[in-house]
Amino acid sequence: MVVLAAWMPAEFAVKSQNPRSCADAAGGEGGAGPGAPDLITVRGLNLIKASQMCLYAGSLVPEDVVAEAPNDAEVIDTAPLHLDQIIAKIITADRGGLDVARVHSGDPSIYGAIAEQMRRLDALGIAYDVTPGVPAFAAAAAILNQELTLPEVSQTVIVTRTAGKASNMPGSEELSLLASSKATLAIHLSVRNLKKVIEDLVPHYGEDCPVYVIYRATWPDQEIISGTLTDIRAKVRSAKITRTALIMVGKVFSNDDFIDSRLYSKAHKHVLRPK
Fold this sequence. Notes:
With 275 residues, the chain is α/β, with parallel strands linked by helices. It is 25% helix and 22% strand. It has helices at 42-50, 63-66, 83-95, 115-124, 136-143, 175-178, 194-205, 232-239, and strands spanning 2-6, 10-15, 28-31, 53-56, 74-77, 100-104, 127-131, 157-161, 184-188, 210-215, 223-228, 245-249.
């Protein structure tokens, strides 16, 4: 069985064709979470502990996470491998009846590049399970002690990115179009495009809109840079941050006088609190 797991809490598992039942097998693909080893989910950690082969993206997943694999497990950093080589490892393990944990960062459903892996496994008839993980934007919000959806300020969070070497953006999802919503933004994989990000956002959010750039959220070398759309680029350049950073933008980051949600209001009645 192969388990695909993500670092910030996501996991994806592949079930081998060995005689054991799926209930007995351990493995798959999943999210390990944002970085801190204690932010991986219980399920993800248990899959790693039960794996006989553990494949992880060393550039994004801390070694402390995969250190929980059994001493006799084969632990492989896939950062220098291409897709064919990674799938070949899984095929070999599956044929040998080994349980495999494929560990990714964050949640595998968001920029996890697991779709192409699952497509290959589907074609090969190799079953798998996916275990969700803590996405980077949720970890960043926790670090900032910030709710991303404040009443009458923003009730929408857009998770997006800008075009890069690995992937272009659909025309209907250009940041300049998404910005018209004025929703809270979690912009991934775009710190090198910060100049263009600012140009696209200023017309909609204003130059004074608060921005956070969170470098390697929850890792020991985490760095948080705060500013506005006017000065954030200079601050990021001064800090020499060029990768592995999340850009958070929105009025929620500067609004302290928002109205209380009615959820806990004494005047709000619902089925569990009729009076």
